[in-house]
Design brief:
Mean pLDDT: 93
Strand order of the largest sheet: 1-2-10-7-8-9-12-11
Number of strands: 12
Helix content: 25-40%
Low-confidence stretches: none
Shape: globular
Structural class: alpha/beta
Order of helices and strands: HEEHEHEHEHEHHEHEEHHEHEEH
Length: 345
């Protein structure tokens, strides 16, 4: 028996799960470990990251956990800036156990306070000019890291006709899609966002579904790669996560639920297509919320039936958390789409 002695590489490697005859999901224990390790490795090789350096980042959780695991093992100091609405005390305690400093800002609007988080991070960088910012939103290392995932999909599936994945920083979907489209030029790329995220033109607002979407526009979101965008509300995503657990034994987080929901719909409506879907998170962090009937019962409208199929829209607009919509993006820039929306309006 051979043993992979690199535990972090094993932890960043997804399990491939067949969710339907034409649908394969890459289920990650901690997907963000893939770009975090790639970025730190490149910085160390380039001499940008010195022994014992101070690493900083803004995060809603999983990228922060990935960097925390790596910096603890490699002897770096780490400061993570987050919002109080994004990270529960248990998760903060895990990060602190790894030696990380966690700065949790207030989030009165419920939109993640990304602007405040970046201001706080820049304050640190002004005081400590030699600190290293991993820049998950803008670093090329984020999307380049996903060449490995593209390779794993091809090895598991051979031909791939459609890729489905959530978008938050843009790294996983745009990176994997870039490499797969170099092999399969006709590859269709479908992005999964949520209501009141600004990534694809919706107005900023309070978001219930976390782990995807954003209140700022990262450079790694490459709109010209996207054929179709889906906005999935929190409730359809929660139900889809529950179904993954019941039907496939996969205890995944709500972001994975949103991606699986869209992937399963695509596989049903395009039975001749071979569909790959990225499932980025596990459910353990959400055991007291998404998997708690007590917590779910506190959500307004939770018992209202959630959408089981997307509503095709021509006007970009937010909908309730029960809703699921889709829009033909057509590999256009964000400016082009928004300009046409204003003209048509």
């Amino acid at each position: 028996m051979s043993i992979d002695a690199d535990y972090f590489r094993a932890l960043e490697t997804p399990r491939m799960a067949r969710l339907a005859d034409n649908l394969v999901g890459a289920a990650f224990p901690l997907m963000k470990l893939m770009p975090a390790r790639f970025i730190l490795d490149r910085a160390e090789a380039a001499g940008e990251l010195k022994s014992g350096a101070h690493v900083v980042e803004t995060t809603s959780g999983t990228f922060g956990m990935a960097v925390a695991l790596l910096t603890a093992a490699r002897g770096y100091r780490l400061t993570l800036v987050t919002a109080s609405s994004l990270m529960d005390p248990k998760y903060q305690a895990r990060l602190q156990r790894l030696g990380s400093e966690v700065i949790a800002l207030d989030d009165p609007r419920g939109d993640g306070n990304q602007t405040g988080r970046l201001e706080s991070l820049n304050t640190i960088l002004r005081k400590e000019t030699d600190a290293f910012w991993t820049r998950q939103y803008d670093s090329d290392g984020n999307w380049l890291a996903y060449a490995r995932l593209a390779d794993l999909f091809v090895r598991a599936m051979g031909q791939i006709d459609c890729l489905v994945g959530c978008i938050g920083t843009g790294g996983s979907l745009c990176g994997t899609g870039t490499f797969l489209r170099s092999v399969f030029p006709d590859l269709k790329i479908i992005g999964v966002d949520t209501h009141r995220s600004i990534l694809f033109g919706q107005p900023l607002g309070k978001r219930v579904l976390r782990g995807l979407g954003n209140s700022v526009l990262p450079r790694n979101v490459r709109h010209e790669l996207i054929d179709e965008i889906h906005w999935v509300g929190a409730y359809p995503a929660f139900h889809a996560a529950h179904r993954l657990f019941r039907q496939h034994g996969m205890f995944m987080g709500p972001t994975s639920g949103a991606a699986a929901l869209v992937g399963q719909w695509v596989s049903k409506t395009s039975p001749d297509a071979r569909v790959a879907v990225i499932l980025p998170d596990e459910g353990h962090r959400h055991a007291d919320t998404v998997y708690s009937d007590i917590w779910l019962a506190t959500l307004p409208g939770w018992r209202t039936p959630a959408s089981s199929a997307p509503t095709r829209i021509s006007r970009i607009e937010p909908r309730p958390e029960t809703a699921w919509t889709r829009f033909d993006w057509g590999r256009r820039s964000l400016d082009d789409v928004l300009r046409l929306q204003q003209t048509d309006g």
